[in-house]
Design goal:
The complex is a heterodimer. By secondary structure, chain A is of the alpha+beta class. Chain A contains seven helices and nine strands; from the N terminus they run H-H-E-H-H-H-H-E-E-E-E-E-E-E-E-H. In chain A, a hairpin with a 5-residue loop joins strand 3 and strand 4. Chain B has four helices and twelve strands, in the order H-E-H-E-H-E-E-E-E-E-E-E-E-E-E-H. The chains are: A alpha+beta, B alpha+beta.
Chain lengths: 293, 323
């Protein structure tokens, strides 16, 4: 088996410059071989994936993780506020510095109220906005990828050869600059603030966070997402998590804005009592159309 | 990666937001950020560049040319009742230093009187919201954009510069406060029971014009600090009419709302492109030069996150706060 893995890995590198999508028969053969051979951490070969006009993997679409990572990145049994989870951290546990492990414990104790950015529907940060359990939409051009995130925050991953701006700015989502390594989009993300958590269990980072993401299409409807987190103030060494994102394919599925931070004052607009105004006849007719086909 | 210490991001953002809001006052009497003439682009063919999917390529940074959302029907007239700022030199004082005929006309281009054709009860409500703008006594008196709420389909075009990005099947508007995803994919509107701040938009191109059908509006966003509003029964038909040289476009939107209006009205907002040469005023032009070694300048923007949401900003709407 080890020989097979090595062979496929070598072939995967080779085919990066000659996409398998253009050789469907070969792609199918590789898929058959690859399925049992590639575990977490291995580089997957390109299958029959969508591509943009310039030949890059096309990540356009609406995606969502089913990993449960947002409950707790580390392995955990079920508890009152989280279903059980195997965890998504390579090596299972985040290598915290001693003070940070204690801080994480405090965060965990206070999690019902202290996970501010989620509870107030602010901005989730990176990588949390990727595996948070809500749909995100990716729009792709040669110069950038735009991710419209849960709660409405918009992230741009620049792929036009530009570098990080001179900071620090303390961005919520960091500053993202990507490049292609074969069919994998590698994104360097820096210049964060320290206000976001990594999950609901109190895992956290500081403003020294540096994230390297690897986005790879496993097939037309599946993204393998890997993020390596480095933070000299909080961790003893860089560590990596990975999740799978699935494409939403439901009929007429679309991203629906969820500016849920407005819920706190929604009821006051447009003004008190406005909800008692009569519905438009057109709305009633459309509702009937939808409900009584 | 070792990075220098910085103030808490919330503080930074709060200061930045306050400065941004203060900019009109800082601009002084000779406010050359605004034009008084409404330049209208005629509808017609598109002869400019196209994207691979055939859409006219209108991507880039844009901003309106006649005023912010202080006053919907008198874009350079300031907020009526702005006693605290009279003589202070801000945009709101244009109303005190320039006669009406020298200011930009109403954004309401039809009916001809430039006023929103409100039913009497709705006019009374708008006047109440305006009368309490500086001294709110009820939650509803606080203009929701002051709480970082999305500005809604039309007012987003009067609030800072913004960016248009285009994709097969979509036109994306990235605003200072909120995002609009306009579907060109022929899919149906959402069920009418779903009402949204930025509504639900279905568009198509005809020549140089992007025509957008806008429904599912929760109508919580207003049309200006002057309190004009609609009900969530509103239907908006928008036309974004782009000049073939790519430098201007005209927004025309027909509002139909039998709950609030006596007849439909039309909004007209002129806009122009923000380029590398545009003044870096932090209002129209919120771009930065990208960091790269090649000679050509590349414009980009940084994340726009209105952090405080329901704190801080709300206070800015009360008397004594910045505009």
């Amino acid at each position: 088996m080890s020989f097979l893995v090595a062979t496929i890995a070598a072939a995967g590198r080779h085919t990066a410059s000659a996409p398998l999508a253009r050789r469907p028969a070969a792609a199918a053969a590789w898929l058959l071989l690859a399925a049992p051979a590639f575990g977490a951490g291995a580089e997957a070969p390109a299958a029959d994936i969508p591509r943009t006009a310039d030949g890059k993997p096309d990540f356009s679409g609406i995606w969502e993780s089913m990993s449960g990572a947002d409950y707790d990145l580390e392995p955990h049994a079920g508890r009152e506020d989280a279903p059980p989870g195997r965890g998504v951290v390579h090596g299972d546990f985040i290598p915290y510095q001693p003070w940070a492990l204690e801080q994480r414990r405090k965060n965990f104790e206070a999690r019902a109220t202290a996970d501010r950015t989620r509870l107030q529907c602010l901005t989730l940060g990176v990588p949390r906005s990727v595996y948070y359990p809500a749909p995100l939409q990716i729009f792709q051009r040669p110069r950038d990828l735009t991710i419209v995130n849960p709660f409405g925050a918009v992230r741009t991953i620049h792929t036009n050869g530009t570098s990080h701006p001179e900071g620090p700015f303390g961005f919520w989502l960091g500053d993202s600059r990507g490049h292609w390594e074969g069919d994998t989009l590698v994104v360097d993300v820096v210049d964060f603030n320290d206000e976001t958590w990594l999950d609901r269990a109190g895992n956290f980072h500081s403003d020294a966070l540096h994230v390297v993401e690897r986005w790879t299409l496993l097939d037309a409807n599946t993204i393998r997402y890997e993020a390596t987190l480095e933070d000299s103030k909080v961790y003893t060494r860089p560590w990596t998590l990975s999740v799978i994102l699935y494409r939403h394919r439901e009929e007429n599925f679309q991203l629906i804005e969820n500016y849920c931070y407005t819920h706190a004052y929604d009821e006051h607009y447009p003004f008190e009592g406005a909800d008692r105004l009569p519905p438009a006849e057109s709305d009633v007719a459309r509702e009937r159309e939808v409900n009584e086909p | 990666m070792k990075r220098p210490a910085l103030p808490r991001a919330g503080t930074v953002r709060r200061i930045a937001a306050a400065l941004t809001l203060l900019l009109p006052a800082a601009a002084g009497h000779a406010d050359d950020r605004w034009e008084t003439e409404v330049i209208r682009v005629p509808r017609g063919e598109w002869t400019g560049p196209r994207l691979p999917d055939g859409q006219p390529d209108v991507q880039g940074f844009w901003s309106n040319t006649i005023g912010n959302h202080d006053n919907f029907t008198d874009p350079q007239g300031g907020i009526p009742g702005d006693v605290a700022r009279a003589g202070g030199g801000g945009a709101r004082d244009i109303g005190t230093v320039q006669p009406r005929e020298k200011r930009a006309p109403s954004r309401v281009s039809d009916p001809p009187d430039g006023q929103v054709p409100f039913q009497p009860w709705a006019r009374a409500k708008q006047e109440e919201l305006l009368a309490n703008f500086f001294h709110p006594t009820k939650e509803e008196h606080i203009e929701p954009l002051a709480r970082c709420a999305p500005a809604g389909p039309t007012k987003s075009l009067m609030w800072h510069g913004y960016e248009i990005r285009q994709y097969p099947g979509y036109v994306l508007f990235l605003f200072d406060s909120g995002t609009r995803i306009i579907h060109l994919d022929g899919k149906p509107h959402l069920p009418a029971s779903i009402k949204l701040w930025n509504a639900d938009s279905r568009g198509r191109w005809e020549g140089n014009t992007l025509i957008v059908d806008v429904r599912n509006n929760n109508a919580k966003a207003r049309l200006g600090r002057t309190g004009e509003f609609t009900s969530d029964n509103v239907h908006i038909e928008e036309r974004y009419i782009f000049a073939n040289d790519g430098q201007r476009y005209t927004y025309e939107a027909v509002y139909t709302d039998p709950t609030v209006l006596t007849r439909p009205f039309t909004v007209t907002i002129p806009a122009k492109r923000i380029t590398v040469d545009s003044p870096r005023d932090g209002w129209h032009n919120q771009t930065f030069l990208a960091n790269h070694p090649r000679p050509e300048p590349i414009l980009e923007t940084y994340e726009r996150v209105c952090v405080e949401h329901n704190a801080g900003h709300g206070e800015l709407a009360v008397a004594g706060g910045p505009p």
